[in-house]
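Notebook p. 47: complex prediction with phosphoenolpyruvate.
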Amino acid sequence: MRTKIVAGNWKMNKTPAEAKALIAAIRAELDGLDCPVEVVVCPPFVALAVAAEALKGSRIGLGAQTMHAAASGAFTGEVSAAMLVETGVKYVILGHSERRTLFGETDAAVNAKTQAALAAGLTPIICVGETLQEREANRTADVVTSQLKGSLAGLGAALERCVIAYEPVWAIGTGRTATPGQAQEVHALIRRVLAELAGGKVANGVRIQYGGSMKPDNAAELMAQPDIDGGLIGGAALKADSFAAIVKAGC
Ligand code: PEP
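Predicted complex, structure tokens below:
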């Protein structure tokens, strides 16, 4: 049995004061809820310390949206895994499509970051997904397989400590969601690739989130699919009621 995991990717939204207020509102919805879903919020770097404080005493975990692979050094503007850990961070999103397309993050870079995150005790949430052009050219399986093999190379059994997020790029922030059938088909493929990389036992334990315009009204159907183990939520994570409704859809 895999525990579902729902994570909110706040992207470049919410100042520290706004983050504190949003966490208070999310806690008002979720504290005391009897539900096995693992819940994570991922605010911007500058809001992480305030968020860690605001999350004290709750079972909601704190995540970052990226990190650098190196331990320290001359990397202006970057943040290391150890810095995140000391701030109270437990999860880190790696290889989000916006990082890949806007900031040139390659599979090799995602791989280096994943190794560093695992070494620091963080849970990486590693994103993969095809563009619309790639889907229409019937290249979804090839693209996702090659992203997985590149991003997860050399992890072996440590793969069991990773979360994978399947995020079709054409569904992110567009209001266009993959149908449960489309998503399940790719999630099943991802699990087969994970089995190739680390064996069936490890692959069966890895949580695979769906991301891409997941909302309260489509979350339950998506998360009911056999290989969909939660969601990575963008827009709908910026409001306490919609984020909480998605969590509850997974309970
Ligand atoms: C995301 O960016 O990870 C995401 C899934 O965004 P949205 O839910 O807004 O499509």
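Notes: Residues 7-65+75-241 form a domain with the TIM Barrel fold (CATH 3.20.20.70). The mean pLDDT is 97.
Next step: compare against the earlier run before touching the bench.
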